Every structure is written in structure tokens, then in C-alpha cells.
Amino acid sequence: MLPFHYTRAGDIAEALRILSRDEGATLIAGGTDLVTLMRDGIRAASHLVDVNGLGLDEIHWLPEGGVRIGALCRNAVDDARLRREYPVLAEALRSGASPQIRNRASVGGNLLQQTRCTYFRLPEFACNRRTPGAGCSAIEGDSHLQAIFGASPQCTAVHPSDFSVALQALDAVVLTEGTRGRRRIPVDDFFRLPGTTPHLTTELRRDELVVGVELPGGPLAARSHYVKFRERASYAFALVSAAVAVEVRGGTVRSARVALGGVAAKPWRSPAAEEALIGRPLDEEAAAAAGDAAARGARPQRHNGYKVELVRRVVRQALSELG
Amino acid sequence: MDESTHEGPPSRRAFLSHSLTAGAGLAALGSAGPGVAEARAVVADPPETLPISLTVNGRRRTLRVDPRTSLLDTLRKDLGLTGPKKGCGQGACGACTVLVDGGRILSCLTFAVMFAGTEVTTVEGLADGDRLHPVQQAFIDHDGFQCGFCTSGQVVSAVGLLGENPRPSREEIRELMSGNICRCAAYPNIVDAVESAAKGR
Ligand SMILES: Cc1cc2nc3c(=O)[nH]c(=O)nc-3n(C[C@H](O)[C@H](O)[C@H](O)COP(=O)(O)OP(=O)(O)OC[C@H]3O[C@@H](n4cnc5c(N)ncnc54)[C@H](O)[C@@H]3O)c2cc1C
Ligand code: FES
Ligand code: FES
Question: Which of A182, A228, B10, B59 could form a disulfide with B14 if both were Cys (CB 3.0 to 4.6 A apart)?
Fold first, then answer.
């Protein structure tokens, strides 16, 4: 690791000033992802800007409904009202990593964490995401953890976050602040698919920081749920996960959200699964139909065909457990 | 032991870094034209070490750290506290667990400079003189270890867990201790130990 400057920024303006004048400057929050990436030579920084002193660690309930969660709130955030009004969010956070990591990892860092694709994390392998144009070792290599939706010939990595999958199902908005002002970016637009530029993973500009996420109010979130399937019972990334939210009125589904984790370079929304639910009672049949719809259009690689069946089952399970 | 280990005049490189603000202003002004490289050349000499003060196991410590050093390495190498272990160095095992301001974290996934002003507790700081912390005693009473390599992390993690949740069920203990891997698979006894420590409170 090359030596770097270190500044604990006192306010957002100071952080932005350093970001805009030094191209190699990088933000650090909990450090639970960035530290190992730097140590392993995957990422480098000329200047580390510590954002822990920015006071962005509050949960703010909006008078008109909805809630804003500061970017520096930890993944261990345990708020009774959040648990009650946005169960899928609390469950997704709780399913991530381990208690020690959740105590340190931030909400902003969770969105911006890098893929766990083995080839990305091992500098001895070619990776377009790490080094544009270098090639993708996963295409010919081990694909059992790779994407089944939205991949490109340049990159098949998946986004590892559980939290973001819940955000996707809740129609959340990412709040940013940069030298050119503030932006509100819907989660679905915030993350990018690899295409021909897999090294660009989000819409965040280099001179911008995430200040928080905003969840809308409304009836959907209260009846929501997260199911995560992994290789062991705890302390593992999702192979496939599903975040679902359903509004039932008069015995039938009025609106629904289904988002998948572990299957794409971004939290993957499934409009087909949502449509399969609308207008019917939320029963086993509807859950199975939504599971089938969610798996449609999947393009598995050599070693990850099992993920297609997992999508079916995880979506079905999430909806059944809601019912 | 002495108050601090690494006092002394700042090195030349560290000194240069203090002129950063003035030089960086130049770089910002010149960012559209030439001269940036020169301005950077003056500015871009990162410090070899930075001073930090923090409280470790109740004692205030002031030392200089290489910004690239983890809190784990600082505790082990600069402060001689080898209770926290480096099992994996990448967040996968929990052997390096310490408490920061009472909350358990993994000290390997950190840079020590980020912990100025905090209160750090390692396994060495749990006992009260010769009187073991109840969680330590419970690990002995229940044979909560075999080789012992993971044990300091397990014990500190369990103390953190009971701070978060003083009355965990057995199921909750299993889940909330899952960030600590034990190669010897002493898990059943570890869960017994944590359960009995919780009951004894
Ligand atoms: C062993 C292990 C298991 C894990 N398991 C899971 C899991 O099961 N599920 C899951 O979801 N996650 C898991 N994680 C990942 C973990 O959730 C992330 O490491 C964590 O959320 C990152 O947050 P951080 O604050 O530590 O980020 P950092 O490491 O500090 O930063 C990560 C990135 O985010 C950027 N960043 C941070 N804050 C901001 C901001 N405010 N604005 C703009 N950019 C910012 C940084 O520049 C950096 O690029 C695991 C991690 C480990 C080590
Ligand atoms: S050494 Fe920190 S988790 Fe293994
Ligand atoms: S006692 Fe040997 S690793 Fe846990």
C-alpha cells in the first residue's frame, strides 16, 4: 500500500474540497470494505477523507411520511419504528455480515461496497472492473457466484449488498451532495449495469458524497419481508435473496415490489413478478406464479444454473411468509 | 510501562505534509492549466506517521502511527497487547474483536488513525486485577475453548453482545456470536458459557 494523506473532515464542504482538488482522494467511512481493498492493492488512495465526523448519523422521520437515514448510520442500526414500518429493511440489514462488522459498517459504505467477485479481489487475475480493458476471468473461469441477470461479455459480477435489495423494494432515493449541488437519485438509477464500462458501478460522481437514503411513506413497506439464501446459516453473502413488499386491500394485491439480490450487478427489480401478483389474493399460487415470473429471462452461466431455481424458491418463500 | 512509545520530533515527510493547505490551494487554482504537476509534487508527500491519542484499557496512550497501520497491528505491535489475534486479517474470523466505545468491532478492518479520541478495550482490559470478568470465568467454567486461538475474540465479542442484548436466548447467542469462527468447533461450550454469563448478570 502506498502512503496516503489522511484528513478527518470537519464538514461536508471540507470533504468535497479535498475530493475535487485531488483525483486520488477517497472517502472512508467504516473501512470494512475499503481497508482490505487497499491492503490487497485493488484500490489506492492518495488522500483518505474520513467522513465519520460529518454528523450524518441520524434517522429523521419526515412530517409528510417517510424517513431519511443518514449515510453514517451503522448497519447495526436498531430502531423500533424502522423495524415496525420497514421490516424488510431491518431484516436485510440484520442478515448482513456479522455483528462486529455491522457495528462499524455505514449505510453509505454498504451501497458503495465493491463486488465480492473472486477475480476482482485477486489482482493476479484479469478483471475489466478493476482494470478497464484487461479482460474478464470469470467468463471462462468459475461462474458459480456470478450474475444471471444484466451481465455483459465484459463483466458478470454481482453486487453483494443485502441492504440495497431492500432499498430497491422500497423505492428508496439516494441523497447526494457534491460541488455542483445536491441530487436525489432513485436507487434503481443509482446502480449501473456493467455494459462496456464495468468499472463504473454507480452514478455517484467523483466529487460527490452520499449523505443519506430516503424511504417514502405509504402502505407498501409495512408488509414487507427479506429472505436470504446462503451457503451457511449466518455470516455469509447471499447466493440469492429476495425483498418483497405487498399492499393487500379487499383481499387482493393492489401493489407489489419484488427485488432480488445476488443475481446482478445491482439490486434487481422484477416487474414481471410484481405484475404476477396484482389483482389476486396473496396465496400460495400467487407466490409460486411470482417466483416463476421472477426467474423468467434469467441467463445463467456455466456454473450458476442453480441460481435460477433459487430465485423461484426464494421469491415464493418470501411471499408465503408474508401471507 | 511508559505513557507513550513513539514520541519525538515529526519526520521531514510529516513536516512537509503540514504545508499541504497552502500548496493544495495552489493546486486547486491551477487545476485548469499547467503547473498542477509542480504544485502536486510539493504537496503530495504523505506523512510517514501521524500522532494519535486514545484510551486503551483505561489508560491514555499517545503515539505516532503509520496511517496504513490497522488498529489491530497498532495494539499488538506498538502497545504490546497481543490478546487480539490476527486470524485472517480480512474480516472473516472475529479473532481480532475489540470494543471501541463499548461496541464490538473487527480491529483488522481499520486504520488506527481513525480511532483518535476513542476508548478501546481488548481482552487484557476485561479483568479487574486478579478477578476475571464474568464472561472470562464462564468460558473457563464451561470449557469454552480447545486450542484457545479464537478465545480472546470470542470473549470480547460475548462482552459486546451482552452489552447490546443483556438477555439473549440460546438461539440469539448462536446467531449473534456467528461473527467469531472457532476452528476447534468449541461452539456448544461457547454458547453455554455466554448463556451462563448472561444469566449470572
Ligand atoms: C467478512 C464480511 C462479510 C460481509 N457480509 C456482508 C453481507 O452478508 N451482506 C452485506 O450487505 N454486506 C456484507 N459485507 C459488506 C459490508 O456490509 C460492507 O463492507 C460495509 O457495508 C461497507 O461500509 P463501510 O462504511 O465500512 O464502507 P468503507 O469500507 O468505509 O467504504 C466502502 C466504499 O464506500 C465509499 N463510501 C463510504 N461512505 C461513503 C459516502 N458517505 N459517500 C460516498 N462514498 C462512500 C468508500 O469510498 C468506499 O469506496 C461483508 C463484509 C465483510 C468484510
Ligand atoms: S483477523 Fe480480523 S476478522 Fe480475522
Ligand atoms: S478454540 Fe481453537 S479455534 Fe477456537
Answer: B10
What DSSP letter does each residue of B12-62 carry, written as one string? Answer: HHHHHHHTHHHHHHHHHHGGGSTTHHHHHHHH----S-EEEEEEETTEEEE
Q: Quote the ligand 1 centre to A210 CA distance (angstroms).
A: 13
Place of cell 483518505: A48
Q: Say what the ipTM of the complex is.
A: 0.97
3-state SS assignment for residue B134: helix
CATH of A224-322, one of 1.10.10.10, 3.10.420.10, 3.30.390.50, 3.30.70.270: 3.30.390.50
Q: Does A48 touch chain B (CB under 8 A)?
A: yes
Tally C-beta pairs within 8 A across A and B. Answer: 103
Instruction: Please name every residue paired with A5 in a beta bridge, in sequence order, or none if there are none.
Output: A47
Q: Mutation test of the interface with chain A: which of B71, B104, B194, choosing the one with the most A Cβ atoms within 10 A? A: B104
Domain map of chain B by residue range? 8-44, 50-199
Helix (H, G, I), strand (E, B) or coil at A238: coil
> Model pTM?
0.92
A1-52 has which CATH code? 3.30.43.10
Q: What is the pLDDT of residues A120-171, one digit of tens each?
A: 999 999 999 999 999 999 999 999 999 999 999 999 999 999 999 999 999 9
Domain ranges of chain A: 1-52, 224-322
Distance CA A59, CA B109 (A): 26
Indicate the class that CATH gives domain B50-199. Answer: alpha beta
